[in-house]
Amino acid sequence: MRIDIPKVPADGGWYEEDVPASVLELEADPRVRPGGPISCRFFVQRVSGELVVKGRLGMPASLQCGRCGCFFSTTVSDLSFLRAYDAPEGTETVDLTPDIREDILLSLPAYPLCSSECRGLCAQCGHNLNEGPCPCKPPAVGPGKWSALDKLKEL
Ligand SMILES: [Zn+2]
Ligand SMILES: [Zn+2]
After folding, report:
1. Where are the domains of the chain?
2. Quick one: which ligand is closest to 113's CA?
3. What tens digit of pLDDT does each residue of 10-44 get?
4. How many Å apart are CA 42 and CA 143, to the nearest integer?
5. Rounded to the nearest whole angstrom, what is the distance from the C-alpha of residue 7 to the centroid of ligand 2?
6. Helix (H) or strand (E) holding 53
7. What's the CA-to-centroid distance between 100 and ligand 1, angstroms?
8. CA of 125 to the centre of ligand 2 (A)
9. Per-residue model confidence as pLDDT tens digits over 53-86
10. Quick check: 12 and 43 in contact, CB under 8 A?
11. pTM of the predicted model as reported, rounded to 2 decimal places
């Protein structure tokens, strides 16, 4: 997304653009599937040799839950994007794309959860516990472990 500086209104102006999600280069990340372009809506203003850009951006995405491994739909967004660019007299354009990319990447949750109540997977059979209980018994404590120790003692 490029801003054509000579065309920025004296009092600033609103700019809207959809930036393709391909700029994120997320193809190698199996946990994130962009669901559409990054919608940007910025107020752009020239302030004493600088171009000040503020606004919001968001992208529909499917993220992999860190607990159960399911993909769930959400919107990755930043409602308080703010950047200032050096734009001395004679500067023609400023490219916002690298900062848009960085902003979305920083807005991705480090540990996404499909729900705060996600029950995750059974540690024994891998069953998704959000779909109901599995037949596994709770891990054996006591006899099993101790009998192994007893055997060691006998040796
Ligand atoms: Zn989950
Ligand atoms: Zn199980």
Report:
1. 2-118, 119-155
2. 1
3. 999 999 999 999 999 988 889 999 999 999 999 99
4. 65
5. 62
6. strand 50-64
7. 28
8. 4
9. 999 999 999 999 999 999 999 999 999 999 999 9
10. yes
11. 0.80
